[in-house]
Specification:
217 residues; alpha+beta; 4-stranded mixed sheet; 2 helices; 7 strands; 13% helix; rod-shaped
């Protein structure tokens, strides 16, 4: 049986239409500005599962080394100094220099007896520039005092410039006689090369005499 339209049905239908279209219109203009306005269930449904971690990319190639800078210019070499003159070849001293002292020892011994002598010959390692007169040759007896010409002792012989000093250390059965040039063996004094000292020997059981000397140019 066909239903008939009446005013009430039409009015209800129009009201329903406008209500639905108005709601749809309102829905189109509804703004969501916070997740609190969305149901948690809807949020969970909208949230996708976390994807797998991506693979680590390969290490990049090492960059090229920078070019080596150019070497600096080498500075100029300094001038070589002049070679010094070659010195003269040294040699033995020709003569004892003025103020230079030479020292040594002497000794003499023998059997002894009546009218006998003992002596010792000494040679200067460096010759003197000239012979020494008897006034410049001195004998300091054992236990004797130092003088201006012979300021030393038998333990530390010394002589003033231009003098020869002969120091007696100890003796036995002898008596000093003199000092003479070594080259002649007679007279008194000293030649440039050395001296000879001699004693009279009167001991019956052997005689001896020892000492030191110093000469200064």
């Amino acid at each position: 049986m066909r239903r008939r339209f009446n005013y009430a049905n039409v009015t209800a239908t129009l009201a329903l239409f406008f209500a639905m279209s108005g709601g749809a219109l309102a829905a189109k203009h509804y703004l969501i500005n916070s997740t609190k306005q969305i149901s948690p269930k809807v949020l969970r449904a909208l949230k996708g599962n976390q994807g797998p971690t991506g693979l680590t990319g390969p290490i990049g190639k090492e960059g090229l080394s920078g070019k080596e800078g150019p070497s600096g210019k080498e500075g100029p070499s300094g001038k070589e100094g002049l070679q010094g003159k070659e010195g003269k070849e040294g040699g033995p001293a020709v003569a004892l220099a003025k103020g230079q002292t030479e020292v040594g020892t002497w000794d003499a011994w023998g059997v002894g007896g009546t009218s006998s002598y003992i002596g010792a010959s000494e040679t200067f390692r460096i010759p003197l520039s000239a012979a020494l007169a008897s006034s410049h040759v001195h004998f300091i007896k054992e236990g004797g005092s130092s003088t201006a010409e012979c300021p030393g002792t038998h333990l530390a012989p010394a002589a003033a410039s231009g003098h020869l000093c002969v120091y007696e250390t100890f003796s036995g059965g002898t008596s000093f006689e003199g000092i003479c040039p070594n080259s002649s063996g007679s007279g008194s004094g000293s030649d440039p090369y050395g001296f000879y000292i001699y004693f009279s020997a009167c001991g019956k059981n052997g005689v001896w005499n020892f000492g030191t000397w110093a000469v200064t140019g």
